[in-house]
């Protein structure tokens, strides 16, 4: 399998794909093979689940001194998002200045470029969030 195909097939990266326990009906992100609530009873009873991508900001920070490779994006907002389904996701908030983000802000998932391996290398895409 090629590198590009590998990245495209990562449900959690492109679609907020997780799993759902058919016993207790809880959803999990990222995907799990066994429910942490039902434990062994859930083996073989987890199904794929795609989160809607809507949620609220529960916590956030504005990054001014990023890791190498993200220096062109400063400042940027990194937030903990509580999805409508209840799971917490860490994600970047884009398309707005940091002053517009507040705890409790409604957000929606968007598909954006995450990184690029050199000027002619592989581009990796994934989920980020924007204010609704």
Quick synopsis:
By secondary structure, the protein is mostly beta strands. The chain is built from two helices and eight strands. The strands form two sheets. The protein has a five-stranded antiparallel beta sheet with strand order 6-5-4-7-8. A three-stranded antiparallel beta sheet has the order 2-1-3.
CATH topology grouping of the domain at 53-131: OB fold (Dihydrolipoamide Acetyltransferase, E2P)
Strand percentage: 35-45%
Largest sheet descriptor: 5 strands, antiparallel
Taking pLDDT < 50 over at least 5 consecutive residues as the criterion, the unreliable ranges are none
Q: Which terms summarize this structure?
A:
three-stranded antiparallel sheet; OB fold (Dihydrolipoamide Acetyltransferase, E2P); single chain; mainly beta; five-stranded antiparallel sheet; 132 residues
What can you tell me about this protein's structure?
- The chain is built from two helices and eight strands, in the order ααββββββββ.
- By secondary structure, the protein is mainly beta.
- It has a domain of 79 residues: OB fold (Dihydrolipoamide Acetyltransferase, E2P) (Beta Barrel), CATH 2.40.50.
- The strands form two sheets. The chain has a five-stranded antiparallel beta sheet.
- A hairpin with a 4-residue loop joins strand 5 and strand 6.
- The N and C termini lie far apart (37 Å).
- 18% of the residues are buried.
